[in-house]
């Protein structure tokens, strides 16, 4: 942080306290390891006590906390250790995507493209553009986590601004704005299916009418609201708090291949490389489109699924976006390198990919520790138990109207700190809250949107979010000593402002009775 900061307000002092407290925690690798041990201990205590709940989404099945320190649990710990590591959700996604991005970055394509971008866009729109791009990246599932935060940091670095501010703006858009988009995505499909199943308990006919686009109108407007809020938080809170960025000699050496001296005029060879790279991107996008858009395309969903849009959203193509994105980075990176002579042969490509993997060492170690923790937390059923008790607490308060919506969103935000998976949380919560709110006159579509608002807004402040570790790894490229406390203190303003403004928008929307999507009313 910049030590020459001026007198701070109460909110900035609060963020400083959060950073101080959080950074008292051990190194992130150690912290995840300690959390894994704590999970084992708590599972043993609660398992011995016989703590259990009734899972409303599994035919009222009784869910008991599993003791992971008994004979069976200890066997699980050792037998699952390798699988917990290699099956940690972000690991394969990150490493595969970074193979493609690594070639694009180390060939010089990304640096040249960023210079071209900065030269062509008004400086005061760069932050808004980053947040907007992050929000829209949810159509590509989780790939935005890997692509945009490091690009945002590099862009700010090239502008002479603090790279963590660029990383934070992109991360806020990708994660806190995950449920907003101008397009429909796999998330809409998954949530619609769970909502329909929960609504069928009260009204099977109504449940059959619930469609994939049930929140589409609202999430379209949300894109513009969150872009503005993200820009405001970045410009008025986060970047002033971070201050100026001063690189050490070690960092200058590590970042020597990147444009750290500011944006300069593009050289003729760079322009030529960018033109050919753009041509390769257009060709690549065209070929990718042929895999899904035409009838009988090899990666298109079955026509039995439903509409044309459904056959694209629920298709092998959408499930394969990570390798497709990696290829769409690799090919233009290779073309740019060949044109500019930064790549002369296959050895150069192999070396660039090897260097990229070497730079991911910290993330790989984090992935091992975090993978064990997440797996133990899931296997122990602690997350499910916490979720059910939280839902029962809200139900017992007997709230109605706007206070009920607010209470539901607050409980969702709290549960999100313990259960990272959006589908797992909604599978748990939908059977409880969809019927409750239907009986109070609120549509399943509104309940789902309220869930999405709270779930997205708090993604960026919980270490249980599966991509939290990779964001720390990206941040440590610019600050070796950055800890969980620093990252949470940087992201907390986004979380608070997104939650408040988004929730207010939803409440006003519901009071006006506007449809949330096609044939998707607010009231039941």
TrEMBL record:
Membrane-spanning ranges: 31-53, 85-104, 116-137, 143-159, 164-184, 216-238, 274-297, 317-339, 360-377, 397-419, 426-444, 456-475, 487-512
Tagged with keyword Magnesium: no
Stored Pfam families: ABG_transport (PF03806)
Keywords: Membrane, Transmembrane, Transmembrane helix
Keyword Membrane: yes
Record-given protein name: AbgT family transporter
Source organism: Jeotgalicoccus nanhaiensis
